[in-house]
Automatic annotation (TrEMBL):
NCBIfam families for this protein: cobT_DBIPRT (TIGR03160), PRK00105.1 (NF000996)
Family label: Belongs to the CobT family.
Transferase keyword on record: yes
Source species of the chain: Anaerocolumna aminovalerica
Protein name from the UniProt record: Nicotinate-nucleotide--dimethylbenzimidazole phosphoribosyltransferase
Catalytic activity: 5,6-dimethylbenzimidazole + nicotinate beta-D-ribonucleotide = alpha-ribazole 5'-phosphate + nicotinate + H(+)
Amino acid sequence: MNYKDALKIIEPPDKEAIALCKKRWDSIAKPLHSLGKLEDGIIQIAGIAGKEQIDLDKKALVIMCADNGVVEEGVTQSSSQVTAIVSENFIDMNSCACIMAKQIGAAVFPIDMGINRDTKLPNNKKIAYGTNNILYGPAMTRQQAIQAIEVGIDTVFELKEKGYNIIATGEMGIGNTTTSSAVTSVLLDLPVEMVTGKGAGLSNAGLERKIEVIRKAIERNKPHKDDPIDVLSKLGGYDIAGLAGVFIGGAAARIPVVIDGFITLAAALIAIGIEPKVYDFIMPSHVSKENGGKILLNAIGMQPYITCDMCLGEGTGAITLFPLLDMSLAVYKQMSTFDQIKIDAYQPLK
Ligand SMILES: Cc1cc2ncn([C@H]3O[C@H](COP(=O)(O)O)[C@@H](O)[C@H]3O)c2cc1C
Ligand SMILES: O=C(O)c1cccnc1
């Protein structure tokens, strides 16, 4: 779908479904709002689905996979070859995120958005064999960025068609904390060193080099910070672009999309920058330990459900939210109301 058409069909969450869902929570025989954000999450999903009786029986994890040309500058501990190897492991359900997804019954959809060699991934949406090195010029053309965004949007509509009712985001792309930090620094107008961390592992000297490369890449590309697609195409990656499309697609197709860690947060920032209405359809999960994770969550204006020092990516943080939502929804659907068990919640003890 053309991304502008997707933006046009985004309607705000359903106020009536939100009010009915809240009423049901408040009628359940327990202290008011005592499940806190777990209640809020179900309310948000009801608003998105447009009905009070929601289901979370079909869960998907979309993992956008792509390579980054900037890896040749020594900004990451691993070689680019790792992207393809780990991405192919997703097919055998043999990665951290896949094992966690299997445990909680979520289906995994790895997508080759731009891995730098041919892969066995069934979802081949390759825009190119990796991006260009941002130290010397734009990562991709504006047209390629839009093409990747549209892959993300189409992916969500296909999953909706298959009956999925919630989507977790994940990514695999060696070097993508560098591109995410570059995008974040420009869009939030923050110094590079404030939003740059060690990614999947770097020495202190390596971190200094990474910061310097990002500074120079920003200087070289002169991105327009008020134009998120310009920033994305000059400094981002095909994984981030595809993920921005998944967030936009979630709002257009009315499916909640869950943020993972630092990289998916950068993608969410871009999506919200393109269309602020997307915000209401996004759910946070954890707060990444990566430098900049907390800053990005705060900047977007979201509170994490989970704080446990994760910083792995692949969607590991995002799917960690699923069992919490399952438990909350079970209470929401199954528990007796004050009326049913004849308790007056506000009756003082005698
Ligand atoms: C074996 C391995 C598996 C991973 N799974 C996720 N990531 C995570 O690390 C990468 C980003 O870190 P950086 O920017 O420092 O390269 C991404 O692929 C992210 O998903 C991995 C990284 C490695 C090495
Ligand atoms: O925050 C994340 O998701 C993250 C951090 C470091 C490396 N990979 C992913």
